[in-house]
Each structure stands twice: as C-alpha cells, then as structure tokens.
C-alpha cells in the first residue's frame, strides 16, 4: 500500500526552493518507521493546518493498519528539516524557527506536542474546547484560564487534559537562561491528590 496523504502538505518556501511534497511525505514516513517501527506503507500523514506558521508546517501521523491511540507529531522547518518528538530539543528548535508573532495558544500546542515529557494531550484553548472540564473546574472552585504568555513572553501557561486518564494539569513552560525548556505540571483535576512535577528537556537552538 502506498503512502497516504490525508491533507495537502501545503506549500512552503525554504531558501528559494519549493519543497517537494512527496519527498517530505517520504521523510516523515521514514522517521515514523525508524522511531516507532511502523511499515512505510501504513503511514498516513495529515497536516495540522491551524498550526502552520511562516515557513513551518506541522503534521500528525497515523497507522492505516493498527488502531493505535497515539499519533506521532512532526514538523517541517525551513530548509526541509523534519523533526519529531524524539528529536533532541525539538520544541526549542520549533520555537526558535517558527514562533515569531505566534499566539500563546500556538506555543501551548507546540510544547504539548514536542516536549518529551508531555508528548500529547488536549490544550484547552477556550471554554468550548471541553465544556465538561470547565464545569468540573467551576465545581471545584477553580477558574478556567486560556493559554497566556508570561510578562517576558518567554514562558506560557495553559490547561492540558490527558484524554486517556481524564486528568487535567496546569502546565507552566519556561525557556530558561540555561537554554532548556522547563515544564512544571500541576494536577488540578483527577487522581487522588494534587501534585507538581518539574521536567526539563530540549536544548534551544539560537
């Protein structure tokens, strides 16, 4: 079975050369094969158009043969560089290459998809994303807050839902002076108690 492309990979310009969609599709499929062991012919690639930013584009992948719960994410950066969750410093590389003028919602999605200690989940960008969770927050005496930058625009805070465990976290992601992305997760709903974890990963490319 040939490679499937769910949505158009779009058009991007890097160093004056139009990207070859088939080549990008092939590179993403090869990355999935190497990192997750899927057969090349079972990889479906779908662009997440709402994340497209300047010359950067973003994709989810899925298996056409197996009902897997996870969909690995990949980004294509200027210069046709394909990186995924398992690329060292992936989130930092994307922020450095693509974040000019981006919203706090966009930052939250990138950190969620490409920081190795998150790797997925549902970002609550507004009250309509998951009204059931907003109701539970209200019942618990807590307020809903959309993704927001810190004062220096080097950090972002947002609500993140794990759809499998139904646990809601507040995530604080900060680009530290040491060149890492530090993530603090605080459990708000679900589980037996509220706790926090400090996670660090990803060297930022300047």
What number of domains? Answer: 2
Distinct helical segment count: 4
**Into which percent range does the helicity of residues fall?**
10-25%
What coarse outline follows from CA principal-axis ratios? globular
Structure description:
With 206 residues, the protein is α+β, with helices and mostly antiparallel strands. The chain has two domains: 1-84, no CATH class; 117-206, no CATH class. Helices cover 22% and strands 32% of the residues. It contains four helices and 13 strands. The chain has helices spanning 21-36, 90-98, 104-114, 131-139, and strands at residues 4-5, 13-14, 17-18, 43-47, 57-63, 73-77, 81-84, 122-123, 148-149, 155-162, 167-175, 180-189, 196-203. Strands 8, 9, 10, 11, 12 and 13 form a six-stranded antiparallel β-sheet that branches. It is globular and about 50 Å long. It starts with a strand and ends with a strand.
């Amino acid at each position: 079975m040939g490679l499937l492309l769910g949505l158009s990979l779009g058009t991007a310009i890097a160093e004056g050369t139009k990207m070859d969609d088939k080549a990008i599709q092939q590179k993403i499929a090869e990355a999935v094969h190497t990192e997750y062991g899927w057969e090349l012919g079972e990889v479906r690639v779908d662009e997440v158009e709402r994340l497209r930013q300047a010359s950067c584009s973003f994709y989810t992948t899925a298996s056409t043969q197996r009902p897997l719960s996870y969909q690995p994410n990949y980004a294509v950066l200027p210069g046709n560089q394909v990186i995924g969750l398992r690329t060292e410093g992936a989130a930092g590389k994307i922020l450095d290459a693509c974040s000019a003028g981006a919203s706090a919602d966009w930052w939250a999605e990138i950190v969620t998809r490409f920081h190795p200690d998150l790797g997925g989940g549902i970002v609550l960008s507004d009250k309509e994303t998951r009204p059931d969770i907003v109701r539970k927050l209200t019942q618990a005496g807590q307020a809903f807050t959309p993704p927001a930058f810190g004062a220096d625009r080097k950090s972002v805070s947002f609500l993140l839902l794990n759809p499998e465990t139904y646990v809601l976290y507040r995530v604080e992601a900060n680009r530290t002076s040491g060149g890492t992305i530090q993530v603090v997760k605080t459990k708000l709903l679900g589980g037996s108690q509220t706790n926090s974890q400090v996670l660090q990963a990803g060297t930022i490319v300047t």
